[in-house]
Amino acid sequence: MSAELILASAIFVAIGLILAGVFVLTRFIGPRNENSQLKNNVYESGITNPIGTTNIRFSVKFYLVAISFLLFDVEVIFMFPWAVNVVELGVAGLYKMFIFMGLLFIGLIYIYKKKALSWD
C-alpha cells in the first residue's frame, strides 16, 4: 500500500472515532428534559395556543409539483455540461441530447395529461 492511502485511511478512521466520541460525550454531558410538558407543546411564531390542529393533510398536488420541478431541474444539470462540450461531442452528442430532450418532453406530456399541472 502507498503511504498516501494509509494516511487517508487513518484520517478517515480518526474523524469517525472523533465524531462518535462527540456524540457519546454529548449524550452524557448534555441536559435531558425527556418528559417535559413544555417541550412537547406546539410553538409557532410566539403563538402558544394555535387555532386548529397541527396535523393537517396537504394536497398531493404540492408534492407532484415539487417532484416535477426536481425532474426538470435535473434536466438542466445534464444539459449544462453538454452545452459546454458540444463541439467535442459532435453529431453523436447532438443526437443523444435530442433523444434525452425527447424523453423529457414525453414526460412533460404525461404530466400534462395526468393534470398534475392544473391547479384547482
Automatic annotation (TrEMBL):
Spans through the membrane: 6-29, 62-82, 94-112
Q: How does it sit in the membrane?
A: Multi-pass membrane protein
Q: Key word Transport present in the record? A: yes
- EC code: 7.1.1.-
Identify one Gene Ontology CC term for this UniProt entry: NADH dehydrogenase complex
Q: Which Pfam families match?
A: Oxidored_q4
State the reactions this protein catalyses. Answer: a quinone + NADH + 5 H(+)(in) = a quinol + NAD(+) + 4 H(+)(out)
Keywords from UniProt, A to Z, are: Cell membrane, Membrane, NAD, Quinone, Translocase, Transmembrane, Transmembrane helix, Transport, Ubiquinone
UniProt GO MF annotations: NADH dehydrogenase (quinone) (non-electrogenic) activity; NADH dehydrogenase (ubiquinone) activity; quinone binding
Read off the InterPro entries from this record: NAD(P)H_OxRDtase_bac/plastid, NADH_UbQ/plastoQ_OxRdtase_su3, NDAH_ubi_oxred_su3_sf
Where is the protein localized? Cell membrane; Membrane
Kindly report the protein's main subcellular placement as a broad class. membrane
Is Amino-acid biosynthesis given among the entry's keywords? Answer: no
Q: Fill in the subunit field for this protein.
A: NDH-1 is composed of 14 different subunits. Subunits NuoA, H, J, K, L, M, N constitute the membrane sector of the complex.
Under the heading PANTHER family, the entry gives:
NADH-QUINONE OXIDOREDUCTASE SUBUNIT A, NADH-UBIQUINONE OXIDOREDUCTASE CHAIN 3
- Which family does the UniProt entry place this protein in? Belongs to the complex I subunit 3 family.
Q: Any idea what job this protein has? A: NDH-1 shuttles electrons from NADH, via FMN and iron-sulfur (Fe-S) centers, to quinones in the respiratory chain. The immediate electron acceptor for the enzyme in this species is believed to be ubiquinone. Couples the redox reaction to proton translocation (for every two electrons transferred, four hydrogen ions are translocated across the cytoplasmic membrane), and thus conserves the redox energy in a proton gradient.
Q: What is this protein called?
A: NADH-quinone oxidoreductase subunit A
The species is Aliarcobacter vitoriensis
| Name of the gene encoding the protein in the UniProt record | nuoA
